[in-house]
Amino acid sequence: VPPDMKEMLAALLKARSLRARPKTARKIITAWNGLAIEALAETGRVLGRDDFIGAAKECASFVLSSVRGPGGRLMRYYLGGVSSVKAHLEDYAILALSLLSLNEATGEEGWLTEARLLTEDMIRLFYDAEEKAFYDTGADDERLFARARDLIDNDLPSGNSAAAALLLRASSLFGRPEYRALAVGIVAGAGGAGGAMREPLSHGNLLCVHESVLGAG
User: Fold this and answer.
1) How far apart are CA 159 and CA 170, in angstroms?
2) Residue 45 in 3-state DSSP?
3) Cα–Cα distances in Å, from 125 out to 48, 53, 140, 180?
4) How far, in Å, CA of 111 to CA of 200, rounded?
5) Mind listing the pLDDT tens digit for each residue in 186-201?
6) Beta strand extents in the chain (DSSP E only)
7) What sign for the dihedral angle of Cα 23, 27, 94, 107?
8) What is the 3-state secondary structure (H, E, C) of 12-41?
9) Are 74 and 95 in contact (CB under 8 A)?
10) What is the mean pLDDT of residues 33-56?
11) pTM listed for this prediction
């Protein structure tokens, strides 16, 4: 950086320091941490980075032990020792997927056990057998006029595409063909093929699952 630019940056920083700092988000969101766990576990496994895997384990242990409500119900976020909103579909699916990657990176069976329990809870709380897809909110959550079911992949995978990815992967690991049937149902019955063809940029993760279904079929 040129000397004159350094002086300008220092002056700007000094002036900015006189103003109130913007507030920062302090919520520990379950789905977001699931994405981080998976990235750290996968990268650590591929690159042989034990520090990455260690960070993934610490994060997963914290979420599983702290982001819980009454009866062990997974919660949406953790803030200052409080978890007050029940986890959504994406939280269950993404966290369970991350634990499968952590098991693959470490060989530790405990992560596999936790992932299986989360998968079963996800099916029980969110699955709609009539529509062959999942709701975004749980059956034990606040009663709404209509339960949402978002199929659009944005910065996070949609709950349904994440659930389909989890079920397809878990089917092979746990020897549960019914899991694969649920994943196929999501892709075929929840607008996976048709919706993705009309708006492929809005269904990136679902298209990946669709490709995996075809490859495994």
Assistant:
1) 16
2) helix
3) 37, 30, 7, 18
4) 33
5) 888 655 445 666 777 7
6) 28-29, 77-78, 127-128, 133-134
7) positive
8) HHHHHHCCCCCCCCCCEEHHHHHHHHHHHH
9) yes
10) 97
11) 0.85
